[in-house]
Amino acid sequence: MNLQHMKMQMLELGILILAAYIGGLIAKKLKIGAVIGQIFGGILVGPHFLEILHRILSNHPALAGLAVFKPIYFFYSNGFEEYKEILESYHFFVFLFLGLIAFSIGEELHRDRLRQVGVKASIICLIQGLFTFFMITAGFKVIFGFNWIHSLIIGSIGIATAPALTFILMTKLKITGRLRQLLANIVVLDDIMEVILFSIFLSIAMAQQSGHFVSGWHIAQEVTIELLMAVLIGVIIFVILRLTIRERKPDEQEMEDDNSFLSTVLSQHPTPSVEILLIVLAIVAIGIAIAIHFNLPFLITAVTAGFLIANLHNNAIFDSLKIENVMPIMNLMFFAIIGASVRLESFSKDTIIFVLGYVALRATGKIFGNWGGAKLTQQDPKITAALPKLMLPQAGMAAVETILVAAVFKTGGEDIFNTIIPALVIFELGGAYLSERTLTKWKNVSMGEREALSTKPESYESEGLSALVQDRIVSLMAVTRQESLFELAQLMVQKGIIHETSDVTTALMQREKLASTGIGNGVAIPHCRVPLVNKTTIACGVLKHPVEWNSPDKKPVEILFLILTPEEFPQEHLRAISLIAAVIKKPDFSSDFKAAVQSRDKERYLEILSLQSKN
Fold first, then answer.
1. Predicted local confidence at residue 132, as pLDDT
2. Which residues are catalytic?
3. Averaged in consecutive runs of 10 residues, what is the pLDDT profile of the chain (615 residues)?
4. What is the CATH number of domain 449-614?
5. Which listed site, 307, 326, 339, 560, has its alpha carbon 20 to 30 Å from 93?
6. Strands 518-520, 523-524: pairing kind
7. Contact 247, 270 (CB under 8 A)
8. CA distance to 11, 75, 260, 545, per residue, from 5 (Å)
9. Angle formed by the axes of helices 34-45 and 47-58, nearest 10°
10. What does the angle CA 547 – CA 553 – CA 559 come to, to the nearest 5 degrees?
11. Which H or E run includes 283?
12. What Å distances lie between residue 454 and 403, 459, 463, 610, CA to CA?
């Protein structure tokens, strides 16, 4: 037991956590995103920055005598190498956390969600992946004069996208729904495409280097075996988790009398808990370690396990990966280590032109490829604007593959390493900034609605809300949020506004996942944009059984206003919300309106809406 070494380990861990935490706080104050601050905090206490700082001070002898710099000289001479080695030993956490994030992506690959976005995600992935690949490959061959095989390898690495950062931010901001589902599908397909292309070109390059001829059939066999082995380990992880975390009905006894001792010890009900998190973490860690040992694409292993859990076991297991008191600590550690690992010395005058070229070519490919794919598949304009910015971060698998290339290539490997590693720093920092800004803006969609609730409408028809509701008012028998939305959608079908309930129910539930539309005082305002209407249309429902809606005042909802607005007027729902806000402010509105609806007094309830709008 080396007490001195343990002391240094604890010191470095404490410094990393403190620097990342303070960096995050400062970044929040500067409104540039906590993630950027956490990464920069890691950079400032990382060995690479300290080494550069020592080099600068060494070139200025006049500074050596200043007391403030003496600790730096002393530390560099006595503990720096050990400090550097300890950071290297922390890198296992980065790979473990990447695997955990990849596993959690499985939640978005449930068959019901795949039906909604699967084909469109595949189209977007193919367009952006191949466009990025050809941009980088052609650029490095034609502009920078790299040989074909090295250009193809750099192009294949450029396809990879790092899902960890974006999905951490989505979980932190509690963003779910179509954007998250679409992104998860694209990222998974993206990494599969990248692994296949990289494996093919690496095999060709190694064959050329050794002077051997390798057939296309041989390469296809190797790539297929690697993917199948990675999937097989994922299946084994799933089987172990299924046996360990058993699904039991609420009325089932905690443990049958004839259960084995091992089952009694390991079995956990799939409800969110630290215990489930620990089990998942442990088993996924072992599976990833085995995949890495056999040089397999470990992210494919983790995604496979998550996909099987989502479709063949219980989605509730993923909730344990979102425990608010645990995950922020792991997030901070991840970004701190990423920052401390940034190789600042990899930036040099000789390779900076290649670095900037890679950044420009990859960013162009990702942005225009994703934008074009989203346009072609007719995605929501907000998704079309957000998606390209969320696909820029790159680390993880790209870094591993770059290190592998540098290790096995006798010539050209160092050039590839010195080109991609600095570019990964730029993409991780720039991607973190863009992703956080984009997702925060996405989250704040609901903020405009809150403002509309508190703003008095400048002008509207004398009939006000009743003109938008007309005769679309009904009593609802639903007892859940989803049933409520379905009944109101059925009313819209009966009135000839939409063709099928599915035209709006999916979009409504996705909007609810983004943020609850309950506004308090027993009222909720579910809404979505559809291509089937050319003007704002509202249906109103009064619930016979109040439904929990996660409203700000924690009160269940009794009155629903379902708002449908045209796709070409995305802000039109804010006007409708302000009308509703004006109507419900009367103290007796709720009781009077419910009584009128229950008695089917159409004149009375339309009068209530009209009179309130005139006030």
1. 92
2. 527
3. 76 89 84 73 85 76 67 69 81 79 73 67 88 93 88 88 72 71 77 76 72 66 81 92 69 45 48 76 90 79 86 75 70 80 70 88 91 84 82 72 70 78 78 79 58 50 68 86 88 85 79 73 84 83 86 84 78 75 76 79 73 43
4. 3.40.930.10
5. 307
6. antiparallel
7. yes
8. 10, 14, 43, 64
9. 50
10. 40
11. helix 274-293
12. 55, 15, 21, 19
* Predicted pLDDT at 133: 93
CATH of domain 108-235+314-443: 1.20.1530.20
Q: Which has the closest alpha carbon to 458: 563, 566, 582, 570?
A: 582
SS3 call for 39: helix
**Per-residue confidence (pLDDT) for residue 614, from 0 to 100:** 42
C-beta neighbour count of 8 within 10 angstroms: 16
Q: What per-residue confidence (pLDDT) applies to 33?
A: 62
Q: What pLDDT is attached to residue 258?
A: 46
For CATH 3.40.930.10, list the domain ranges present in the chain: 449-614
Amino acid at 441: K
pLDDT at 90: 82
Strands 537-547 vs 557-566: parallel, antiparallel or unpaired:
antiparallel
d(CA 336, CA 447): 31
Please report where in the chains the tokens 């804010």 appear, as a residue. 574
Percent helix, strand and coil across the chain, each to the nearest 5: 70, 5, 25
**Residues facing residue 476 across a β-bridge:** 543
Give 342-400 as a DSSP string: --GGG--TTTHHHHHHHHHHHHHHHHHHHHHHHHHTT--HHHHHHHHHHT----THHHH
Q: Which residues of the chain form CATH 1.20.1530.20?
A: 108-235+314-443
Amino acid at 118: G
Q: How many CB atoms are closer than 10 A to CB 267?
A: 16
Count of C-beta atoms within a 10 Å radius of residue 358:
27
Contacts of 135 (CB under 8 A, 6+ apart): 155, 158, 361, 362, 364, 365
